[in-house]
């Protein structure tokens, strides 16, 4: 009796595995739902922001970015490659003799 019940249970389980399932349709519906959820997660303003940059040239060892902009890089005269950024908006060339300094200044804008 026990072997008959176990065999019957095995056959029923096996038959359930043979039931055709349209996996492609299921995958498509899941993909659509994920795309919709991702679209709703991001606010539209995040996709429309742009990076705008300008270069500011000054005599001497310092070049300052305009208010609201951040120095992203510097360039120095007399082939000086040693510089740092101070307070996020000032380029400072570190070589002893410098005739000009350029600050590359950028900001995110709508």
UniProtKB/TrEMBL annotation:
<keyword id="KW-0732">Signal</keyword>
<comment type="similarity">
    <text>Belongs to the resistin/FIZZ family.</text>
</comment>
<keyword id="KW-0964">Secreted</keyword>
<dbReference type="GO" id="GO:0005179">
    <property type="term" value="F:hormone activity"/>
</dbReference>
<keyword id="KW-1015">Disulfide bond</keyword>
<protein>
    <recommendedName>
        <fullName>Resistin-like beta</fullName>
    </recommendedName>
</protein>
<dbReference type="GO" id="GO:0005615">
    <property type="term" value="C:extracellular space"/>
</dbReference>
<keyword id="KW-0372">Hormone</keyword>
<dbReference type="InterPro" id="IPR036262">
    <property type="entry name" value="Resistin-like_sf"/>
</dbReference>
<feature type="signal peptide">
    <location>
        <begin position="1"/>
        <end position="23"/>
    </location>
</feature>
<dbReference type="Pfam" id="PF06954">
    <property type="entry name" value="Resistin"/>
</dbReference>
<dbReference type="InterPro" id="IPR009714">
    <property type="entry name" value="RELM"/>
</dbReference>
């Amino acid at each position: 009796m026990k072997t008959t019940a176990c065999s019957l249970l095995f056959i029923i389980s096996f038959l359930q595995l043979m039931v055709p399932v349209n996996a492609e349709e299921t995958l498509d519906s899941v993909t659509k739902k994920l795309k919709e959820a991702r679209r709703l997660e991001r606010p539209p303003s995040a996709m429309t922001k742009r990076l705008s940059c300008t270069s500011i040239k000054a005599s001497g060892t310092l070049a300052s970015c305009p208010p609201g902009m951040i120095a992203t890089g510097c360039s120095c005269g007399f082939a000086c490659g040693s510089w740092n950024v101070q307070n996020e908006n000032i380029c400072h060339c570190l070589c002893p003799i410098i005739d000009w300094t350029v600050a590359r200044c950028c900001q995110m804008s709508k």
